[in-house]
Amino acid sequence: MRISDILRVKGGQVVTVNPDATTERLLGVLAEHRIGAAVVSRDGVVVDGIVSERDVVRALAARGATVLTEPVSAIATTQVRTVTPDSRLEDVERLMTERRFRHVPVVVDGVLRGVVSIGDVVKNRIDELETERSELAGYITGER
Ligand code: AMP
């Protein structure tokens, strides 16, 4: 399975936030879209960073509520790991597990094309296992 298979189902829409937006604004965006991270981008095309609820929690714990009025660029990660639609799902799973992040932007020739979350990965794994289980059950009972 490739990342393109996931994007075909979930679509390529990505919630982005401007690096100059405040952390308070970011929290509004995350809550509104019910997501855990946003891609930081000035133009919605180029990935300038990624910022997740974990970054907010860490910054709040370290510096307190002042963080809320600071720009998102102050807490975002700028060295972003990205994948392409051709990337294999299992490689992305490994990347997420080893690097301990739950979101990976999908980029083609410098253009943002989607985002894959750990939720998408788990959903796909469950679907795969369910298909395999029912095929095996059919094989055992002779229905296939
Ligand atoms: P997450 O588990 O995705 O909420 O993110 C955990 C930490 O990793 C946060 O500091 C994020 O800014 C960072 N992070 C999330 N996704 C990526 C990524 N694709 N590349 C680099 N850092 C990331």
TrEMBL record:
Domain (CBS) ranges: 6-67, 76-131
Transferase listed as a keyword: yes
UniProt xrefs under Pfam families: CBS (PF00571)
Organism superkingdom: Bacteria
Sorted UniProt keywords: CBS domain, Kinase, Transferase
TM helices/strands, residue ranges: none
InterPro entries: CBS_dom, CBS_dom_sf, CBSX3_CBS_dom, Diverse_CBS-Domain
GO MF annotations, alphabetized: kinase activity
Keyword Disulfide bond included in the entry's annotation: no
Protein name, UniProt field: CBS domain-containing protein
